[in-house]
Amino acid sequence: MRAYFEQLLGNSRQQKQLPFIFPFLISLCSGAIFSLALAPYYYWWIAILSPALLYAVLHRRSAKQAFMLGWAYGLGLWFVGAFWLYTSIHVYGDTNAILSVLMIAIMALVMGLFTAIQTWFYRRFFPETPLTFAPIWIVFEWAKTWVFTGFPWLFAGYAFTERFLDHYAPLFGVFGVSFVVITLACALVEIIKGRIFWLIPSGLLLLGAWGASHLQFVQPKKAPPLSVSLIQGNIPQDLKWLTEYQFKTLMIYANLTRSEWGRDLIVWPESSIPMFQTDIQPFLDAMNQQAKNRGSAWVTGIPYWDVTGSREVGTPLYYNSIMASGDNSQGLYKKQRLVPFGEYIPLSGLLSWVLPALQNDPSMSGFSQGSNNQKPLMIKGHRLAAAICYEVAYPNLTRRNAENSDFLVTVSNDAWFTGTAGPMQHLQMVQMRAKENGRWFIRATNTGVTAFIDSQGHIVKQAPIDKEAVLRGDLPAMQGETLYTRLSDWPILLFSVLLLILGWIYRPRQVDVSFKSRR
């Protein structure tokens, strides 16, 4: 049996290696090109090529060398893939260009450590095979959702949103899709090396995607769909929180909504009301009454001050929230995942010199974290699960919110990243969350991308970016649960751990010898 698994897990042949500078540069460049596989570029095949190159250059490298190669890959991945942060830091954070680029480089170096540690573990403890490289990749993608609050971006599985392999999403989530992508990438390298055996598992994975496409976990309820209007106000980020612009902001949204009263549901985006509810109660009462008179539900993003809770704990409790009111509708959702340097500044007193303009932004004053057991919003007898902006990047959080829901809503303000790939990457994540949970997702944003997304993750309707817009559509309630909604990430994580255990037990003994001779 050992001989069988050693053959399956691979064995390196002695070959002359290239000078280290060449694999280092290949790693850096292969990481840098990865984001071209994602929105808005959609070159999905790069999601195969990029990790395949990393897998190839790690061949017969020591653990220390693997660490540096992984760090180079991670540096390229995050510096290019998350460069959309430059707009928020430089343009809206009032930080000079050189310091802004330096901050992104530091972020990339820190995030690149995930890949560095990942590749170090791979070459230190396991044989060179797709059956160890892919599971380690998945474990570290998952770690990015919770280590230091998480930065769950640039996952391999997102490249296949609406592309065949995404049929694994309702079964095992985005990490299941990523596992298949990375396995196929590594298998390609093995096949090029002449190990034709890898055509078999590759074919089985593709056949599995075809089989998964015929599974049906959810179906529409018999109730008629809701008529929905999503309002996109297109308020510039540099004006959004100015006191003198607040009244104009409210008038823009009220005017865009005037023709929509009478529809079942009207949704305004994140913080579309740029004041606490305690400061604007007459306006809220008037809107609520107008919604009731016309038979509409009204959902809006608003900063919420928990006055009672603040008195009890002795400190102000402010929440980034979604509020539902109007005809037969109610509820309040408080954001659970806050964005560092976006909704609060860690060590703000020490870092005030870094982002001076943001110190006067009310959205940066220190929002509190909502609890993880909040009820869905109630909309005309339906349960509307909510997510605010960045939260949709967290698969398990969205999954928890989606439990016992009929449909999903997310509100966002991507004006921070106008003109970059950030908003389109963000939308792609919403598509994956819809596919994972088998629920329609409506997305109302300040500047775009406002959209209707069906239960298969397909964009049904989409508003133009950076323009005032009203997007109308129908929203069917769904029933049933996908396997992912029921079991979360545990199946793919446990399977990955099992493969790593087998890889450790049945590793060729020369892996240990090779390491000892090079450390």
TrEMBL record:
GO biological process: lipoprotein biosynthetic process
PROSITE patterns: CN_HYDROLASE
Enzyme Commission (EC) number: 2.3.1.269
Membrane-crossing residue ranges in chain numbering: 20-36, 42-59, 66-86, 98-122, 134-156, 168-189, 196-217, 490-506
Subcellular location per the Swiss-Prot or TrEMBL entry: Cell inner membrane; Cell membrane
GO CC, any one term: plasma membrane
Membrane topology of this protein: Multi-pass membrane protein
A UniProt-annotated Pfam family: CN_hydrolase
GO molecular-function terms, A-Z: N-acyltransferase activity
Ranges for domain CN hydrolase: 231-477
Annotated NCBIfam families: lnt
Purpose: Catalyzes the phospholipid dependent N-acylation of the N-terminal cysteine of apolipoprotein, the last step in lipoprotein maturation.
Family: Belongs to the CN hydrolase family. Apolipoprotein N-acyltransferase subfamily.
The protein, known as: Apolipoprotein N-acyltransferase
Species for this entry: Acinetobacter baylyi (strain ATCC 33305 / BD413 / ADP1)
Lineage: Bacteria, Pseudomonadati, Pseudomonadota, Gammaproteobacteria, Moraxellales
